[in-house]
Write a structure and sequence with these properties.
This protein is an alpha/beta fold and 247 residues long. It contains 7 helices and 15 strands. The chain has 2 domains: 128 residues, Rossmann fold, CATH 3.40.50; 108 residues, Beta Barrel (OB fold (Dihydrolipoamide Acetyltransferase, E2P)). A 5-stranded parallel sheet has the order 2-1-3-4-5. The chain has a 5-stranded antiparallel sheet with strand order 10-9-8-12-11. A 3-stranded antiparallel sheet has the order 13-14-15, covered by helices on one side. Strand 14 and strand 15 form a beta hairpin. The chain is elongated.
Length: 247
Amino acid sequence: MNYRVAICDDDQVAIDVLEFKMSKYKQPVKYESFLSGELLYDAHIKDKFDIILLDIQMPGKNGIEVAKMIRETDTSAVIVFTTAMDNYALEAYSVQPLDFLVKPINDQDLYSAIDRAIIQCKQAETYKKQVEQQVKSIVIEVNTKPIRLKYDDIIKFETSKRNIVVTTINEKFTYRSQLSHLESKLDENRFVRFAQHGILNLSHVESIESGQVKLDNGESIYPSRRRMRIVNEAHTMYLWAKETSDI
């Protein structure tokens, strides 16, 4: 897996140095750079980074303020502060940074921090998968709070601007993510794309007829002709698998 790394510093020279060092890291990583915290935040909201190298002293919003904004919707991104001074530890404690790298940053300190950040990312992903596999569920993060949703309770996922809206049998949840990222985590035997903007739980399909998919909560969806064929085939396979195994 190529982890996504954000580099944020108001000094282009500092960015160039970190980009060069990251290009020499022992494993491939995807990195993207930003000259302000505001630009970083906007990009992170659209598509979350795994690791963030964040300068503290910047005009506009400083690094700690940007980190607090990120933590409002994301508790899993690994934040490593880069700074010319080392007296920010107490102020930054609330955003749970992995480390502080004091400029000029040497290779050993940087690579050690990235090593530990990747380990933390892997541990978080492993934990999520274990939880989900135990109860056939998925964990989403709503306003920094992890929420586990059982497959049986999920009816559909739909995009709304930069958010995903989850319709369950009891309520709806809205959180920031991308449908393509979500789709890769779901059981392909149970979930199917019914449109570019939506994923359907096949276990909640009541009937399929005349271009209409009726759901057991009373709603109906109307996929395109091509999507309807995919949904119909997936539903047939789901019913067959349900008869022969536990899904």
